[in-house]
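ok, trying the design again with the full structure, not the truncated one.
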């Protein structure tokens, strides 16, 4: 009996000791996982993607003389190309234009075709001369605004847009970023969030949608875009998102002073505020994710920024002619400074671009990916602690590359593909899978030490006194 009791006690003790060690091990594991999460690697180091969309500038108009980029052809520092002016009979070379307010040119589908002119890239002045001037609606793509002189051949230098050039010098400049559609602002914004632009004869039926370069516009945020946008996949995969509007109101003024000139009554027009028009945003009960930009700053400060953010400008800060380039640059700098000063900086990628060429000269023939695009070349900048420093990306890119990056980062490469995404629509192709589309992963070095913030003045010194927009 004594031996039996000792044997039972010994076995019980061993079991108890083993159980105790197991519990301690599990507890230590839980404690370790809570205090030190598994380090993220590669693309997953980017936990926040922010897309800042500005308006109506071609690559050559902003970075045509940037060293190392495919810019304006030069010989001994003088442009070696010119564009015919039908009125004067002269051939006009690109020239330095330091003015902060420009007119640009008409920029609808017909204008894009004429500007490209079968690959000659020489229709810019003729189209500007045909454009309506001083239109009351400055977002009308038929308009030439803000100038009585054709300025589509003008270009900026580092002295005129110093912060944009500084971002390019410290991070990544993309010199083959093309607008996704051969047309104007509105369809480009649709492509930004959905990879397609279409018109739907039955707003509740995605299968009624057909491709177009000039879609039907939603009025009063009425949902009429029935095809699938990226928020559907984000919501389906529990990926947080926000769409932020730089409406000029007192709430936003507390965060960005540049939004608040006394004479500005600007707001985000429907052609740029497109997500309320998508039927899936309403059916998924995600309309509340479309917010004032003040909420973006609040989320930054509370360390609660969504995984994916889009930021749409109002007219005043947009850089859309006749909006001032100085004001637009200050606005963008305010946003980027806020991100860099926040806890989110070390896990963020900012993609800064302009939605279409605005009628301004560019000398690169757009590649053809399908019947709707690509359109003309626009500036593209990548800003991130993991962006390659001082790198120029020569890949062919479009806004479809932003969608692909988001899908690869947060959704294991799932695509806006009607064959697999659970919400069929008749889009003619899956743009993210285009063989010619570059991969934004090439703009990053996830093995480098995170780059420090580059905090820039929101009112930098310009080559001339900025011309106020009125």
């Amino acid at each position: 009996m004594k031996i039996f009791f000792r044997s039972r006690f010994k076995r019980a003790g061993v079991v108890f000791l083993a159980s105790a060690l197991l519990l301690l091990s599990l507890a230590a594991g839980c404690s370790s996982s809570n205090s030190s999460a598994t380090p993220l690697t590669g693309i997953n180091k980017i936990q926040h993607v922010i897309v800042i969309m500005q308006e109506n500038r071609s690559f050559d108009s902003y970075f045509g003389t940037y060293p190392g980029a495919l810019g304006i052809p030069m010989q001994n520092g003088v442009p070696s190309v010119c564009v015919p002016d039908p009125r004067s009979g002269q051939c006009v070379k690109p020239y330095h234009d330091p003015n902060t307010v420009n007119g640009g040119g008409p920029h609808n589908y017909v204008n894009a075709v004429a500007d490209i002119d079968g690959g000659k890239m020489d229709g810019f002045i003729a189209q500007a001369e045909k454009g309506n001037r001083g239109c009351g609606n400055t977002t009308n793509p038929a308009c030439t605004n803000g100038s009585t002189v054709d300025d589509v051949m003008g270009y900026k230098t580092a002295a005129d847009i110093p912060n944009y050039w500084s971002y390019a010098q410290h991070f990544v400049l993309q010199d083959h970023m093309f607008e996704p559609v051969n047309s104007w602002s509105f369809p480009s914004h649709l492509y930004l969030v959905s990879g397609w632009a279409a018109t739907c004869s039955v707003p509740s039926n995605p299968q009624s949608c057909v491709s177009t370069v000039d879609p039907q516009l939603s009025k009063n945020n009425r949902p009429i875009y029935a095809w699938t946008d990226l928020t559907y996949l984000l919501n389906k995969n529990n990926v947080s998102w926000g769409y932020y509007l730089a409406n000029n109101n007192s709430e936003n003024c507390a965060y960005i002073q540049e939004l608040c000139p006394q004479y500005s009554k600007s707001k985000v027009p429907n052609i740029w505020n497109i997500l309320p028009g998508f039927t899936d945003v309403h059916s998924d009960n995600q309309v509340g994710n479309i917010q004032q930009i003040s909420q973006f700053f609040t989320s930054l400060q509370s360390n609660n920024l969504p995984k994916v953010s889009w930021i749409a400008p109002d007219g005043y800060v947009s850089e859309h002619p006749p909006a001032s380039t100085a004001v637009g640059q200050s606005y963008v700098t305010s946003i980027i400074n806020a991100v860099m000063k926040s806890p989110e900086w070390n896990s963020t990628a900012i993609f800064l671009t302009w939605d279409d060429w605005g009628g301004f000269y560019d000398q690169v023939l757009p590649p053809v990916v399908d019947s709707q695009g690509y359109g003309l070349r626009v500036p593209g900048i990548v800003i991130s602690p993991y962006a390659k420093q001082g790198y120029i990306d020569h890949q062919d890119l479009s806004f479809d590359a932003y969608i692909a990056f988001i899908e690869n980062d947060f959704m294991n490469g799932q695509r806006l593909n009607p064959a697999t995404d659970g919400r069929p629509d008749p889009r003619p192709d899956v743009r993210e899978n285009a063989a010619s589309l570059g991969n934004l992963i090439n703009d990053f070095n996830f093995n480098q030490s995170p780059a420090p913030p580059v905090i820039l003045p929101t009112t930098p010194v310009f080559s001339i006194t900025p011309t106020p927009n009125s």
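Keeping the full-length input from now on. Residues 1-35, 464-470 have pLDDT under 50 and may be disordered.
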